[in-house]
Amino acid sequence: MKNKLGGRFWLALTIFSLMGQVAWVVENMYFNVFIYKMFNASAADISVMVTASAVTATLTTIFMGALSDKIGKRKLFICSGYILWGVSIFSFVLLKEDVIGKTFAFAGSAAATYISLTIILDCVMTFFGSTANDAAFNAWLTDSASGKNRGAAEGINAMMPLVSILVVFGGFMFFDLNKADSWSLIYTIIGVLVTAVGVLGFFIIDEPKVQSTNGSYLEGIVYGFLPKTVAKNKKLYVSLLAFIIFNISIQIFMPYLIIYYEVTLGMKDYVLIMAPAIIVASVITAVWGKVYDKRGYSFSGLIALICLIIGYAVLFLTRATLPVFIGSLLMMSGYLCGMAVFGAFIRDNIPEGMAGRFQGVRICSQVLIPGIVGPAIGKKILENAQTIIGNDGTASFVPNANIFLAAGIAAIFVLPLLIKAKIKEK
Fold first, then answer.
1. How much of the chain is in helix, strand and coil states, percent to nearest 5?
2. Helix or strand holding residue 395 (H, E)
3. How many CA atoms lie within 13 A of 186 on its CB side?
4. Where are the alpha helices (DSSP H) in 173-296?
5. pLDDT, tens digit, for every residue of 140-192?
6. Which range, of 12-26, 131-145, 391-405, averages the lowest pLDDT?
7. What is the CB-side half-sphere exposure of residue 328 using CA atoms within 13 A?
8. What are the φ/ψ torsions at residue 5 (nearest 5 degrees)?
9. Is 96 exposed, middle or buried (0-12, 13-18, 19+ CB in 10 A)?
């Protein structure tokens, strides 16, 4: 049991988790806004992009996680991955008419071509990001923290998505997202920062003692999906099932959240309104990891899930600024606290020395299945959504509050699994 972690660990955890989540927030929440505003993307286009990214992230994590186990190295994959991740983000600067128009002859709609190129570049970026973050960084965190500090470390890791949202929201306030030049500057800044963090990692990350595996690389790839592995680790796989449903709930509404705030609710200053909610939810999430350490999986998981469901209900039923703020605070707190609980419990139940090969199973639960099912449900919910005509004469869909109703219904199905776990604990 590693009960004490040094300052270098906490520094590396904070910097790499934060910068990785900033990059993921730009992809998961603002790539949708990018193609929506720049190329009038439809809900179907957004669903395709989310699904393609989810598949890429999963395959990358499975293969690269097993490879990091086989080699017995985490630091190399993390640092080099972050450097290339940053370069791939910067490449989005090239998605401009004066660059693409000279390279590609448009056979059909120019907007459709740009959307397709965005999806392709998104998958390239996801490959490097998943290698660095989903596979190597998460395996490093599993190797480095255990015992009484697992929840505390996971609490810091789980709060970073909200902190990164705050950072991105705050930074994006200074840009007019209706202008292509603003997006070019955004991609330049994020790309340079992610690359710089990758270089810094060579100096601050301590390589955990991980012995290279004796089995074949192919065995490492499929290990987490074998029936015998499931039979040996039933507690782990039941929690992964709950994690799948939890993340499906999140992916039903998350791709449309910013568009919902800005277009549907008309909250042009949504950043100022949401910032306090994000700050409070981040503090709660950091503390909630310690609640997991003291009270266990089922208690901390049930409270987080109930908070999430209540947040959904408030967002579904209200439109005014104050109740939307309250609903968003409850939703964000439940979401990130739930991520901390599931993340810590899953890491606690991964067999020692096998963190890399189990990252593929984890990413299937967190990204692949939810990334396919969740957006598909959201797309179905929004099939008959209201449309608006922009100044250029093109039509855009308007997300409605039914996405929160659907997300809440999905979240309810997690309750029996957590209640069953509580009964077993007793």
1. 80, 0, 20
2. strand 395-397
3. 27
4. 180-204, 217-222, 227-232, 234-253, 257-259, 270-295
5. 988 887 666 777 787 888 778 778 877 887 787 788 888 888 888 989 999 99
6. 391-405
7. 24
8. -120, 140
9. middle
Dihedral angle, C-alpha 351, 353, 355, 361, nearest 10 °: -50
Count other Cβ atoms within 10 Å, centred on residue 27. 22
**Cβ contact 402:262 at 8 Å:** no
- Cα distances from 314 to residues 322, 323, 331, 412, in angstroms, run 11, 7, 9, 15
Residue type, 282: S
Of the candidates 124, 75, 38, the one whose C-alpha atom is nearest the C-alpha of residue 394 is: 38
325 in Cβ contact with 278 (< 8 Å) = no
7-425: what CATH class?
mainly alpha
Structure tokens given for 341 = 């609980």
Return the residue matching tokens 């000279």.
102
Q: Which residue has the higher pLDDT, 166 or 49?
A: 49
- The radius of gyration of the chain from alpha carbons, rounded to an integer in Å, stands at 21
pTM for this structure?
A: 0.76
Cross-strand partners of 389: 395
**In which residue are the tokens 């899930």 written?**
305
Site of tokens 């797309």: 379
In this structure, what DSSP letter does residue 224 have? G
The full set of domain ranges for the chain reads: 7-425
Residue labelled with tokens 């290279």: 212
Q: How many helices (H) and strands (E) does the chain have?
A: 20, 2
What is the rounded average pLDDT of the residues 292-317? 93
Contact 155, 286 (CB under 8 A): yes
